[in-house]
Amino acid sequence: MRLTGGMVALALLAGSGVAMAGSDSIDVSTDTKLALSLRGSVGPIISGQTLTKATVTMTDLELVDGSGGSVALSGNGFMADLLGLQNQVGQLFPAQPVKAGRYSALRFHLKNAWVVAQDVDGALTAYASAGADKRQFSKGTTVQTLDLGGLDSDGFVSCAVAPGGVVLGDTSTLALHFALAQSLATSSSSVWVLSPVCWVVDPFTYSSLDVNLAPASGDSADDKALANGFQVMLLDSNLWPISEVALASSQSATYSAHFANLQSFQGPFVAALIPPDGYQLQSGVAFSVDLQPSASATASISVTSLQVVSGRLLDVATADHCSVVQHDHSGAVLAKTSQPIGALKDVAPTTHHPQPVPAGRQPLTPAPTPHLPGNPAP
Hints:
With 378 residues, the chain is mainly β. Helices cover 5% and strands 49% of the residues. It has a 16-stranded mixed sheet that branches. Strands 17, 20, 21, 23, 25, 26, 27 and 28 form an eight-stranded mixed sheet that branches. Strands 19-18-22-24 form a four-stranded antiparallel sheet, with no helix packed on it. The longest helix is centred in the N-terminal third of the chain and has 7 residues, at 10-16. The termini are far apart.
């Protein structure tokens, strides 16, 4: 039996002497074995630059209780490419026994980090922190400085806990989300700063979103172009990018992008169409959706035409609204909504859910309305 989120066995927790999950706490019952996974994200939108790598090395993972005491989870070093984990999770360590108790945070040491960016001419620049092996970068790569910020006085990165807390028992998994877009600041061309914004969640509460574009004709050359370089970018309610997924064709003559491992408190989300490199959309195609916890959602968009207006300017015409259906794990319908489709600035959320914030840190701030690649300027 897996005790997690809404599947908590009350009797077991009461018998263990561990209270029910408090606000923003991690409650671990007796005889729990805990595994830890990591989810990354895409980075911020940087004009003229494309991030190709964002690698971090974490050590000394610990749970911290209310009095400041800690319980070590692993002293090993874990290296991960956050861009490679932008739409999936990777295991940091398998299930192992962990001491029962109530914990206020998870923390780790950020040993080093490095980010590689490519400009429009193909030139590569690596921004590397102290301790990163600069010999690993390819010949011709310019190496600049990546400062590490936002660390505790003892050098730890503290991860906030999902709103409402997490309850763990038996064999459970805790997921660490490293939000790269909120963490990386491009202060100058020679120095970038990584101030980690991280939180931990119960992966049982993850939701997913499928964005399906259905061409009116289904088999014209213009319609099939949707599968040739178009992507969908997903942003949180503060308009920070989370994931970018290529549209892929399916047997049902639709073109789909699948987004996994989403936390509902990051919503309402915005999904926006991104054209192939070098192309520009005449008008934006985006919509917002407020996902429920542990939901599987499908958004269906009817594409009425796809035309080349001139040169590399594209017109993707759609219906005015898209249909969004959310199901729970058993397949029961949780919600059906009709969402307006338009430019990012017109569909951007005006409400926000409470988001986790580590002790002593300021709440996450909205991003300036981003200029999405290949979209009209906001």
